[in-house]
Predict the structure.
Amino acid sequence: MSTIIAYFKGIGQGLNTLWTGMKVTGYYFFHARKEIITMQYPDNRDTLKIPERFRGRVVMLHDQNNEHACNGCTMCEMACPNGSIKIITDKILNPETGKAVRIIDKHIYHFSMCTLCNLCVQACPSNALAMDNSYENSVYDRSELTFVLNQPGSKIRDNVKD
Amino acid sequence: MQAELISKDGTQEYFVNMGPQHPSTHGVLRLVLTLDGEIIKRVEPHIGYVHRSIEKMAEFDTYKQIIHLTDRMDYLSAHMNNEAVALLVENALEIEVSDRVKVIRTIMSELTRLASHQLWWGVMGMDMGAITTFLYAFRDREMINDIMEETTGARLTMNYNTPGGVMFDLHPNFQKQVKEFIKIFKTKLPEYDELLSGNIIFTERTKGIGKLSLADAISFGVTGPSGRASGFACDVRKTNPYSAYDRVNFTEILLVEGDAYARYKARIFEMWESISIIDQLIDNIPEGVIMAPMKAIVKLPKGEFYQRVETARGELGVFVVSDGNKTPYRVKFRSPGFSNLSVLDHISRGHKIADLVAIMSTLDLVIPDIDR
Ligand code: SF4
Ligand code: SF4
């Protein structure tokens, strides 16, 4: 007898919990317009809000005169945990003082190895680096992920300390 | 060998590989099951499929750089992992971080714990055959991810802690967003109970399954909600309070049953506790610097250092042997996932294969945490 009671009790309980769960999903079914969280990516690219701190990839900041603040001190290269940055420096003669000064030839950045840890940006003493907000970074070949961060023809801003 | 396996009634035990590409192992974990019909005789975990030698890599990294590696261990508790290394360095150098940093770290940790438990809940339901839970959990988790993204710049691997403080100050919107999230989530968490906790199919599949006794929990070193569901008072936040945990009121969730359902319940209760911790702290974040003065190159004094924190999965221990250089001599991570996995064989013997999925889900394993 008791097993029969337990059997029907189980069925009753089952229906009850089914009803409880269905109530929740039913609520959202009939209030579908209230809380839409699905985004229609990539159709909503224009309206997509990316937080300004979002770490997309490392870039070097250039101003309108195509000047940057990097003096080639290699602090970022040393701060990088996985060798994503390689600095190639050059020496030029300062015409006024006649001394050789170090300038940057190429700031090479291997995006394929970067873990976006932000350590290089923090390490840079002259704030030459920053993170941009790009998020569609897939390419067809790995070599396309190697960037030279200083733009061609750019030079160092005058007031940057060595 | 073969002959031994044939039992008296002429049946034979056999082996089945579960994983490494099995959806319910949540990663590349391979379980070699010895089965008698549908009954599990033995579970042999084979690990190492995502071994990245993080401990060895850490020997070549400075203390600031190690932190970003810990993101990749238990990626769902990334913030707590970061905090463990940061705390270790601060304690070793006897640096006092500001109250602001302590409170920020605590709030962030609890948000990460909530996000981790939400994901676990969704995935747990999915393992049991309920897709609904997955969508509901990710709906709520998305809000935490947005908060994280705004302040730390990353959704999962934040690398937000550094020795001496945190990388950025809180985003101006942070308090508002967190309060809004807490307000909303307080109304959503009861839904979790309605959808899954009371569901008869779910309770039938988890009650009495994978019982772990208190003695076994202690001897296997099962920590976190899984251990506390067996009554093992192992919450590091209570036993060795760090950051701001000594100034908040919360209950350590202790249950006695020790079965899969108790482990499930423990995590649901823990979410309420996390909410209450954030509630207590969010309105009084003290002012202060976010970075204690540090030398440019962090060198630990000669010696051995240990720091533990409570991640969403249990106790994470970081052990560092330093020879006084800027890189450690040896680093060892005591990851909660590894110890929690070790108990799997013990508690799933005699259960059916389908129960193994329930047991594994409630142990909340994260495979990169096990392999490191
Ligand atoms: S973000 Fe980190 S990994 Fe990437 S280049 Fe900078 S330091 Fe290296
Ligand atoms: S980017 Fe900054 S840290 Fe790197 S070499 Fe240039 S100035 Fe130095």
